[in-house]
Amino acid sequence: MLLSRSLKAVVLGCALLAPVFLGGCDRQTGESAQPELSGAMNGGEVQTGVIDRSHKGSTLPEFTVSDPDGGTLDLPSLKGKPVLINLWATWCAPCVTELPTLDALAGRADIDLQVLTVSQDSGAPETVRAFLQDRGFSRLPTWLDPQNDLTFHYATGTLPTTVLYDADGKEVWRYVGGHDWNSAESQEMLAEGL
Predict the structure, then answer these.
(1) Which of 9, 13, 124, 164 is most buried by a 10 A CB count?
(2) Residues 6+ away with beta carbon under 8 Å from 73
(3) What CATH architecture applies to the domain 2-191?
(4) What pTM does this model have?
């Protein structure tokens, strides 16, 4: 009995500390978004996550995402142009903090890149659309994955998770945690798949 309590305490401690070290969210809470990260990503060089290249060469997953109107998008259909897939949620503070930099990246005409943000919220789809519209993120379409299929596929356990695929639909890297997608480091990272 004592051993099982100790093991539970260790597992719970690791689960609670993971987002602190990775700069991401690991679960939804009943409260509003988790506290903001120290430092802002608005023009700063805040790097709170980790890059993972161990899945390089994996193909775009055979999943379909939807929008609040019932439209669908098959991820394999995105081949032909590099794509950055970002998994996020309205309740995740690091996700919300990096959204302005993703919106700016989506609007850049000087790079040939699709930016696809996919909400992992399981609530009402209109809530996600309103969330993006209220904040002026006009370049980020409302794609939804309410069953969290992509979260389970990427198996990072943390939001935000962002994955870059090249034009052939092959994974280049995945980034787990919050990030400033307008930073100089980001431009170097993105160049790997462009």
Answers:
(1) 164
(2) 64, 65, 66, 67, 116, 143
(3) 3-Layer(aba) Sandwich (3.40)
(4) 0.78
